[in-house]
């Protein structure tokens, strides 16, 4: 946001300078710049071509491991270790042995891991977005005693690493007798100071007029929140939803800590377990990995702009 | 007057109603655990015996003498070599993608893929790629050797103490080079005023001079922001990859601070000792955050 204001100021300054500069002087400047730009079109074109080529090589090396993953996941077991294959056979699928994908479901309770992951991630995402939005509305728009102190408390905990709280939370859940339950997987993931902070900052930027009008019409606070604040905040809510879901989907350490029976495993723990049991069966490992990545890939392809906007909205790792 | 008071009470009740679910969770799973963790760091407790034994500062003294802790701190630092490498790569990529070439959107998507898919599945993939006998990397190295008529043999990436850390660094650069940092750099580059470049061109500056005297100083806040955030992330990183790929080995060479905390707490049930390490980790992160505050004057920087 600071940059945005800076940009506006700079834009204004630029216009002022441009206006105050004498016309002739400006013409000289423009001429000099165009001359420079048109100096060597061939050289420029070569440069851009080389750059494009470099980007292409980079993109290939970024995508290569994924290609290898796909082709391995579709290979027959013996094929992966075949000696003296020409190099391109490593990358391109030489066979389409779809059975690997079916086999995974039979070898380990993969369907159970999948369902657990979907259930846990959805609960965490819904819970976090809902509770964060409600709290953020209270912090941004309502006044109540202790508001600033409580908010400072939220801010202060944002820099405390998760490693600090994870041990006492484990002990607490153990005390409740919640270890190895869905409650232990879901509840601690729901409450996020960061989500509250991000949404509060966004709510603060919304215009107040609509709310004031609604208040005069006698709307309740909940109606204002539901019918005005939330619809206006779709981009911020979508960003928080996307990142929360991804975080929950990928989380390995917390399920590892609180869950110990197979039927409660989420996908990451399930994959770790799978690797331990069938570590030599590469084709199955890669098929399982592909299936874990797929939902995230779909979310990314359809919500790409939320990733970009989300990063720009606030430093996302904070 | 009476009405006004009533409105205020109503607002207060509504506010607490909105806040309550989040605040209860915050107290239960964040603020109370923070205090509890501080208390834990002064006791010894294996969860099994009668109860926590007060130990004063023993945990912290033990930590000072613990050769493993020193080693794992060093590991964490060495693995952070990926940060400057990946930042330099991100900046180069951002500059290249900022040239308005054809296919920029496609490139950006492809470069972003490793960041999006990071996690257990990717670590499994790289574990197989690093396999010494049939992994992708070593077979590429061998085939490259064949082309030159040489017999090249790739290293035992993940099982050789000398190669495990470089292997992780290469993987981490691959993962993060086209990700969030590149997007931040791209935004920063687009924010540099055009007339600064025009002025530099009039002064006869070449591309390198333009970069060094215009671009670099203009985007330095972004560089500083990325550096501090990456440092904070870097000190807490390294669990998932080590757990999936090496189990912290060979010979502890890929165990990081967070992995040591995990092992102490949940493998060896040394709750107090683990809590003490986590507070040392907090102090490191706090120090970086203070430096960041000095610079930005706020907790989160807006771009």
List the topology elements:
The complex is a heterodimer of chains A (318) and B (303).
Chain A: H1 2-20, H2 23-37, H3 41-73, H4 77-80, H5 88-91, H6 99-107, H7 110-141, H8 147-157, H9 162-176, H10 182-190, H11 193-204, H12 209-216, H13 221-232, H14 234-250, H15 253-258, H16 267-277, H17 282-302, H18 304-313
Helix pairs in contact in A: 3-17, 6-17, 7-10, 7-11, 7-14, 12-13, 14-18, 16-17
Chain B: H1 2-40, E1 43-44, E2 53-54, H2 58-65, H3 67-79, H4 82-97, H5 104-116, H6 120-129, H7 136-148, H8 161-176, H9 180-191, H10 194-202, H11 207-218, H12 220-235, H13 239-245, H14 257-267, H15 271-296
Antiparallel strand pairs in B: 1-2
Helix pairs in contact in B: 1-15, 4-8, 4-9, 6-13, 12-15, 14-15
Overall average residue pLDDT of chain B: 87
SSE ordering of chain B? HEEHHHHHHHHHHHHHH
Segments of chain A where pLDDT lies below 50 for 5+ residues? 1-9, 16-24
Give the CATH topology of the largest domain in chain B: MetI-like fold
Question: Structural class of the helices, strands and pairings of chain B?
Answer: mainly alpha
The tally of domains of chain A stands at 2
Tally of helical segments of chain A: 18
Tally the structural domains of chain B. Answer: 2
CATH class of the largest domain in chain A: Mainly Alpha
Question: Which outline of chain A best applies?
Answer: globular
Largest sheet of chain B: 2 strands, antiparallel
- CATH fold type of the largest domain in chain A: MetI-like fold
Largest sheet of chain A: none
Helix percent of chain B reads over 70%
